[in-house]
Amino acid sequence: MARLEELTRGACVKGIVADGLATIVDVKWHGSDVVEVTYKDATGRPANELLFRDREASLEIVAQGTPFSFDGDGAHFRLASEAHRIRLAHLFDPLLAIHTSLVEPLPHQITAVYEAMLPRQPLRFLLADDPGAGKTIMAGLLIKELMIRGDLHRCLICCPGYLAEQWQDELYSRFHLSFDIVGREAIESSRTGNPFIDRNLVIGRLDLMSRNEDVLAKLEQTEWDLVVVDEAHKMHASFFSGEVKETKRYKLARLLGAKARHFLLLTATPHNGKEEEFQLFLALLDADRFEGRFRDGVHLVDTSDLMRRVTKEGLLKFDGTPLFPERWAYTVSYTLSDKEAKLYAEVT
Predict the structure, then answer these.
(1) Which CATH number do you get for residue 160?
(2) Which residue from 96, 160, 205, 259 has the fewest beta carbons nearer than 10 Å?
(3) Count of domains forming the chain
């Protein structure tokens, strides 16, 4: 309840306008029991009205001319400010995913994620470091960093069936990311009929997805922020009699690339020695650049913006020492015994 005498310029009053607040612009008295108020409603539209004493019971002063007050719940303000701070944490800690994960990344892993991949928007990239470089860790750091920055909500990891559980365990134990493996049972028990839509963080088995037309139809209905393909060299195509022969796995990769904003291929063996097949493989990342029939000496392109490959000799620790022992290849000569020489002669 508010008395008519409390209606002053700048006051915010509830009860004058039926569905909102009114801000008093001017007040004019007519006697001692009637006041004429000029006010603006929530939309800024001016109006005026005569108020009598019997209206006092329905009037309420919300603010006495102050634009803000300090009588709110401090705990709620702290909660909101803390949530906002966490949401912007990546602006102040450029390696936030590292500091919030149970990993101790090596220099080549940090440069791969924060220098080679994160600046690319959208990402279409082939990570082809040698075996043992920790490509799973690099992919996990990328996924978590994109999630922290609000750039990733839905992610699909496509890998050979025998690696699905390993990916699931690694992502949860190291990065606290809960991925679901979608197999035949999940497909059959899905309430909507499409588990790839029901779940946002999914691990799919390569051959199950590539060989099943029904699963491919379900993937056609999806959209992903990031798709990661492990052992990507299995998704190859080849030239035969002047025509491109695409495997089912290659067709799956083309489908996933079209459904993903960010597309990351992981393999330690990107090149099989045939330049034409390698460029068909790179067409999964940039179909325009590698369009057309391959001709030796014509389709030579710089792929530095599409891929990164670091060999074991280039993998170093933070102190600059090699991560792996140096590899030496040489011939050791030895003398065969009489029995060994006889066996060797008979076998050859």
Answers:
(1) 3.40.50.10810
(2) 160
(3) 2
Task: Give residue 62's pLDDT.
Answer: 80
Percent of the chain with pLDDT over 90: 51
Domain extent, residue 34, equals 4-64
| Cα–Cα nearest to 226, from 304, 315, 120 | 120
User: Is the pTM for the entire model greater than 0.90?
Assistant: no
Residue 348, domain member (yes or no): no
In a domain, 151, yes or no: yes
pLDDT of 174-215, one tens digit each? 999 999 999 999 998 888 899 999 999 999 999 999 999 999
Host H or E run for residue 159: strand 155-159
Question: Are 155 and 255 part of one and the same domain?
Answer: yes
Cβ-proximal residues to 61 (8 Å cutoff; 6+ apart), any chain: 2, 6, 11, 12, 13, 14
194 inside domain: yes
Sequence-distant (6+) residues with CB within 8 A of 71 are none
Kindly write down the DSSP assignment for every residue of 51-109, as one continuous string. EEGGGGGG-EEEEES-S--S-S-HHHHHHHHHHHHHHTHHHH-TTHHHHTSS----HHH
Three-state secondary structure call for residue 225: strand
| Span 51-60, pLDDT tens digits | 888 888 888 8
Q: Do both 118 and 244 map to the same domain? A: yes
